[in-house]
Specification:
mainly alpha; Growth Hormone, Chain: A; 19 helices; globular; transport; MFS; Permease of the major facilitator superfamily; MFS_dom
């Protein structure tokens, strides 16, 4: 919910309950409704299941559709869109990049609006609009018209990840966030599976192939937007499907996150703190370095597979295989993170991608099946984003600061994806060796950045633990009850613990 008014702390002293005026629903609800909360109780587990059944399917579907809609161009490429719209190789590459210019153009305005409108209703409206834009691809007849709808698509879709991150942080504990983000991020693989299946099915039509694909995706996305409007909630206090007692339990579940659950008004001090936080720039660099190979694979993935010697029908089905293996890889990385750390699991997926990329480069063209195996291993690299996202959901507090990090996340993602397709030059086809070497280099760079991020979090945790030990007798009670739901940043909350 949108925080429009200032809060007034009424004679608050350390240890007192925080009474507020204004529109801080979470604090107001906790001040007037008390429950004996036990995270292991049957009631708490029932509320978690209820949240899972409502929130996870909606985030999963909208995130999957965002990827399918954006990636639909790559399937259209092997279904005749290049020939029907007279696209040159360079124009097609630019269509892969232009959608991310839309990201650049829409990111800051979207971030501004997100702090002023209800997140759930804003996302549903944007989902319906981008469904219409996807369907409009079907009536495009040249590069100019396709470039226009691709730009609009990026400018609209840019809201999806920041809102998904915010909602996940509002409903789930830091420990639960890893699993939940992994679940909705498996859509990176499921999008390839569903996209490959739909493309394979529509390819058997005698005409209106790529046009039909865009119309189908657009219709599904529009209907999803309508469902989001009626059923999605941005925070526990806005969830109409929770009773008052269940809302309190839902809030108590995430109290230990200390990242809040609501959207507050814009704060200049928090923006300034964000700009002085070294992690902001690491997030940008990580998303550029991981977005660059992603942009290339998004636009040229099926083309790379076709270059291994497969026909169109086989290529669409093999793309489903690579997507399915990414789903499995995400689940395996989740298990690895449970027994090691998020940082280690993220770096492991990138090293696996390096092996796959090296296989595509080193295995001779006479053994295309083995090269396709390398492609499958390379396709595991997006899994590292799961752990980058959980660093944001569980490692950044303060409404404006969270939106600042989300904005920079999308900016970096856009820059990387703009550059990525440009590494695939017509004269390098069909092997695209320079592009593959570029991918390999950026996989290694991303692994180094992710390691640095994890080390920073670990170092900060150690320093805070030492300070807690030194001051536990004097400052143990120097806090406000319910301060976990105030608009405080992770730097301001001295007991904040960073995920590693």
């Amino acid at each position: 919910m949108n925080q429009a008014n200032d809060l007034e702390l009424q004679d608050s002293q350390p240890g007192d309950s925080v009474l507020v005026t204004g529109r801080a629903k979470a604090i107001d609800l906790l001040a007037h409704h008390h429950v004996d909360f036990d995270p292991e109780s049957a009631e708490a587990k029932r509320v978690r299941r209820k949240i899972d059944m409502r929130i996870m399917p909606m985030i999963f579907v909208v995130y999957c559709l965002q990827l399918m809609d954006k990636n639909s161009l790559s399937f259209a490429a092997i279904m005749g869109i290049k020939e029907d719209t007279n696209l040159s190789a360079s124009q097609y590459s630019w269509l892969g990049s232009i959608v991310y210019f839309g990201y650049l153009g829409g990111d800051i305005p979207a971030t501004f609006i997100m702090q002023r409108l209800p997140l759930d209703k804003f996302l549903s409206g944007m989902c319906m609009v981008w469904g219409i834009v996807v369907a409009l691809h079907a009536v495009c007849h040249d590069f100019s018209s396709l470039a226009a709808v691709r730009f609009l698509l990026g400018a609209i879709e840019v809201v999806t990840v920041p809102i998904a991150i915010y909602i996940t942080g509002a409903f789930y504990t830091k420990e639960e966030q890893v699993t939940r983000v992994a679940i909705w991020y498996t859509t990176s693989g499921w999008a390839a599976v569903f996209g490959g299946f739909f493309a394979w099915a529509i390819y058997h039509a005698t005409n209106f192939r790529w046009q039909g694909l865009f119309v189908l995706y657009g219709a599904i996305t529009f209907v999803t937007g309508i469902l989001l409007y009626f059923f999605l909630a941005a925070s526990p206090v806005d969830a109409k499907w929770l009773t008052e007692e269940e809302k309190v339990i839902a809030l108590e579940r995430v109290r230990s996150n200390k990242t809040g659950t609501e959207v507050w008004k814009f704060s200049w001090p928090q923006l300034r703190e964000s700009l002085l936080d070294v992690r902001l720039y690491l997030i940008f660099l990580m998303l550029v370095s991981s977005g660059l190979p992603n942009g290339g694979v998004t636009a040229f993935g099926p083309t790379i597979v076709a270059g291994f010697g497969y026909d169109v029908a086989e290529t669409t089905l093999l793309n489903m295989g690579s997507g399915a293996t990414q789903v499995v890889g995400t689940l395996l990385a989740l298990v690895l993170a449970k027994y090691t750390s998020r940082t280690f699991a993220g770096v492991a997926t990138l090293l696996l991608a390096c092996v796959g990329c090296a296989m595509m480069l080193g295995i001779p063209s006479s053994d295309n099946n083995a090269r396709y195996g390398g492609y499958i291993l390379m396709y595991q690299f997006p899994i590292c984003i799961v752990f980058i996202i959980t660093f944001l959901t569980g490692g950044v507090a303060g409404s404006t600061k969270k939106f600042a990090f989300g904005c920079v996340y999308q900016l970096g993602y856009a820059v990387g994806n703009i550059i990525g397709p440009q590494t695939y030059r017509e004269r390098d086809a069909p092997e695209y060796y320079p592009a593959k070497y570029t991918m390999l280099g950026f996989f290694i760079f991303t692994a180094l950045l992710l390691t640095t991020y994890g080390v920073i979090h670990h170092t900060w945790n150690v320093k805070r633990e030492r300070k807690e030990l030194d001051s536990q007798h004097t400052d143990a009670h120097d806090s406000l009850e319910n301060e976990e739901f105030l608009d405080k940043t992770d730097f301001q909350i001295k007991s904040f613990k960073y995920p590693v």
